[in-house]
Amino acid sequence: KRPSNFPPGPPGWPVIGNMLELGKLPHREMVALKEKYGPVIGLRVGASNLIVISSADVAANFFKNHDAEFADRFVHDVSKCRDYHKGSLSLSPYGTHWRVLRRICTVEMLVGKRLNETAAVRRKCVDQMLLQIEDEARNLRPIHVPQLIFYTSFNILGNMMFSRDLLDPSCKDVLGLCKAIIGIIEVSAVPNLADAYPWLGRWDLQGLRRTMNNVLDEAIGFASRFVRERIEERQMRVDQNRPKDFLDVLLDYEGDGKEEPAKFSEHTINIFILELFMGGADTSSITIEWVMSELLCKPELLPLLLLIHFLWPQRPRNFPPGPPCWPVIGNMFELGKLPHREMLALKEKYGPVVGLKIGASKIIVILSANVAAKFFKNHDIQFADRFVHDVSKCRDFHKGSLSLAPYGTLWRVLRRIGTVEMLVGRRLNETAPVRRKCVDQMLLQIEDNVRDLKPIHVPQLIFYTSFNILGNMMFSRDLLDPSCKDISGLCKAIIGMLELSAVPNLADAYPWLGRLDLQGLRCEMNNALDEAIGIASRFVRERIEERQMRVEQNRPKDFLDVLLDYEGDGKEEPAKFSEHTINIFILELFMGGADTTSITIEWVMSELLCKPECVAKAKDELNRVVGPNNKLEESHIDELHYLQAVVKETLRLHPPVPFLVPRKAIKDAKFMGYDIPKDTEVFVNAWGIGRDEDNWAEPNCFNPERFLGSKMDYKGQHYEFIPFGSGRRMCMGLPLAHRMLHLISGSLLHCFDWELQKSVTRDMMDVEKMGVAVRKAEALQVMAKKRTS
Ligand code: HEM
């Protein structure tokens, strides 16, 4: 009997009702019935009532207005075996059990953040699948698509649930679990008389209950073994060094113990896990089988697919997760104008190690202090090479450079000389008067501006001062004496080189474009380098002649003397440095030292001008330690704790080299479980790490006090604060930079009072512009006044 006022439908047969109408593919048969009875059809199948909805309008009405009324599920007879339905989410009635499991699933397992953490696991399983296809292709064997995809999906789910490869053929148990689940799926699909006539259930006329009990015993046995093992591991606190998996989430669950369960029973955990396998593996494999079938039936699409395949930058196998690539350009758009800022958004989505492809280059970006610590502590040597940009190959610049040299003998020799002979404390003490002299010249220049009521262009003034300091330390001469034409030429050429190095270059993404020099960058760089090398080599030749003629200099040994004095063993090391190496090394010290220092001090002044109370504290300290009428000397720096905190806080918020100088993998490497191919570039986002909420309270606020009384410094041991990098290739100039930053900024504060120009507002203060180093978008221009007291 059809219930009264039931939706229309075909008349039923005695006993079986509409069973015959369902046919072999009921979803297709129903389309024919729609023609006849409209979009809502009522059926009787044995003792059960069914309604079938066959139009989008009715479906919309159903889901929008009646969802809660129809939120229970029909439980098939076989699903009651071994109380399967009692642990299940998908079969559970609309109530607490369902709500708790569904919440856990949505919020703790399948939420974007957790999926990002497990992206690598899925990549790994897909890599295994591709290897399997390669194998079959080599042996000219056809691919059984649904089986292959089922196994792959199964393995993905297994890794996400238990953190193990469930289909490793060497593990008998695990293959068994897969087989048992396939068995459950098959038994569930057999039309069962007991679903139409529930009273038939106990007779098990088709033997389905028996089969289901067997496969369920098998499957539950496997699942519960994994669960027990994990419970024991957790009791013994075995360190797993892996992201939290689904099983952890289920075991961690704690409910209120009233309406919700206090903990999940082992039965619920087992069944819930089995049903995730059942729900996930079969549906994915069927869908992908259809994708492939449809595509292969459209041969006209194949050339297009192949073209897309070849133009599409391929992410290497088991590479860190990252945004999908666009054809040809890969992830170029993701970098945006200020890549260090854009990368923070990617961290939310893909986790602390992100993999990118830019044209032909592979890049990984490290976005957290923890991962940076692992990188520098355990993988420093594997990634100790540098990526050489196309313009850096002009005039063989890279062959004389320390910062671009591969991790090898030339790098080691130059680094040793730099650290032990040029930038060591003793040598820096000898050259302290030279720096003080340059700072005095800077203060005189400011006084001039004060007198003429002219604003100070802070970055320019500090760039020239740093340049002059470096010039004096290298050549023992004032390079920016305006009376000497040549020398301001060197400064100009170096600024030109810095600017050219900062222009994004297509040839870095597609090396084969290099020789075409589409952007004209090579040509301009050659000119700037000719100019700079010409001037540097003139100084070097003069010095060589002076030394040959033994002209008495009466000055401390400078960097150039050190480089000319060098004598290597002539075997692995060079016996002497070539003139090319000397010229390039000198130019790169100017490039690496002047810009970074001037940018940092510009930020120090910008931040301080927004916080007059910090200026007052810094000035008080300077008066106390240095004395109101004395000059700041480098020997005072150790006692200027507040000034040191100001410089640290500035470098935390504004590291001038926000990604450090990118490293490059010397050979294929394994990092954080990922496979990193040779030549992959590594960007460490020191900027993002310095502003990470996990490490810093109120990370975007300028608050020097946070460093007072703290031992944290920037010498590469505290990975939450690495403006100078860390490891073997950390900044060689740190000891000099440390002195210059404090000497110059301290002198500016001690000798003058500062105020912003009226046209400059505070909102403009934190806006950045990308170059080789990141600087303030609007150069800081300020008025100085002779200090009041
Ligand atoms: C505020 C000032 C400075 C900052 C923030 C800074 C930052 C950096 C950073 C982040 C690196 C890359 C580190 C890594 O790969 O882990 C670096 C490398 C380097 N820096 Fe600095 N730097 C500064 C000043 C200087 C100065 C004054 C000099 C020399 C006169 C200098 C010379 C170098 C050199 C030669 C390297 C390459 C080291 C190598 O590859 O082994 N830097 N710097």
UniProtKB/TrEMBL annotation:
Gene3D superfamilies for this protein: Cytochrome P450
Stored PROSITE patterns: CYTOCHROME_P450
Similarity annotation: Belongs to the cytochrome P450 family.
Transmembrane segments: none
MF annotations from Gene Ontology: heme binding; iron ion binding; monooxygenase activity; oxidoreductase activity, acting on paired donors, with incorporation or reduction of molecular oxygen
Native source species: Dillenia turbinata
InterPro entries, per database record: Cyt_P450, Cyt_P450_CS, Cyt_P450_E_grp-I, Cyt_P450_sf
Keywords: Heme, Iron, Metal-binding, Oxidoreductase, Signal
Keyword Metal-binding (UniProt): yes
Positions that bind heme: C731
Any matching Pfam family: p450
Protein's UniProt keywords contain GTP-binding: no
Protein known as: Cytochrome P450
